[in-house]
Amino acid sequence: xxxxxxxxxxxxxxxxxxxxxxxxxxxxxxxxxxxxxxxxxxxxxxxxxxxxxxxxxxxxxxxxxxxxxxxxxxxxxxxxxxxxxxxxxxxxxxxxxxxxxxxxxxxxxxxxx
Amino acid sequence: xxxxxxxxxxxxxxxxxxxxxxxxxxxxxxxxxxxxxxxxxxxxxxxxxxxxxxxxxxxxxxxxxxxxxxxxxxxxxxxxxxxxxxxxxxxxxxxxxxxxxxxxxxxxxxxx
Lengths: 113, 112
Description:
The complex is a heterodimer.
Chain A: E1 5-7, E2 10-13, E3 19-24, E4 31-38, E5 42-50, E6 53-56, E7 65-71, E8 74-79, E9 88-95, E10 103-104, E11 108-112
Parallel strand pairs in A: 2-11
Antiparallel strand pairs in A: 1-3, 3-8, 4-5, 4-9, 5-6, 7-8, 9-10, 9-11
Chain B: E1 5-7, E2 10-14, E3 19-24, E4 31-37, E5 43-50, E6 55-58, E7 61-66, E8 71-76, E9 85-92, E10 100-102, E11 106-111
Parallel strand pairs in B: 2-11
Antiparallel strand pairs in B: 1-3, 3-8, 4-5, 4-9, 6-7, 7-8, 9-10, 9-11
């Protein structure tokens, strides 16, 4: 298994542009989590899905952020419009119902100029 | 809000020494997990301890949990340069597929 796959690995964009981050969870995992990591705030949960259904999006900072999971093998996190304070590393993680262990992707390092 | 707080924030030791990192949390938990993050990489799960367990071992790792003090410790014995990374504790409030709340981590440097 290739593990959790995220793309792109790095994204540099200008303020006001739309950014789309992508995630492919591990096959067979039924939960998917989006986290954001910054030096100041550490690792924070943005949103998570169980069986493709969003369960808790209370961590999404603003309406500029949206996430979808159209099927069990794909999820997107979109920021529109992006702002410099959105600069961070965004991680996707997935897990199965058998254990609490989460498997993380390599992350997307986003820089908004 | 952050649930776990690791202590110390940074730790530097010589290869072969033991490294101990501590974690405190605020609310009741179902389980506590430790993860490692190498620079520029995603987090990797190391070990999970459930709220009804007090100690757990995995290779050179030993984790303890004291629910009365809401604290946990991670001990890495006979450290190696490859253990250099950031270590995070994460708490799960429920069993099953629920989010984890992470601390800010301890940055461990093992000097060869």
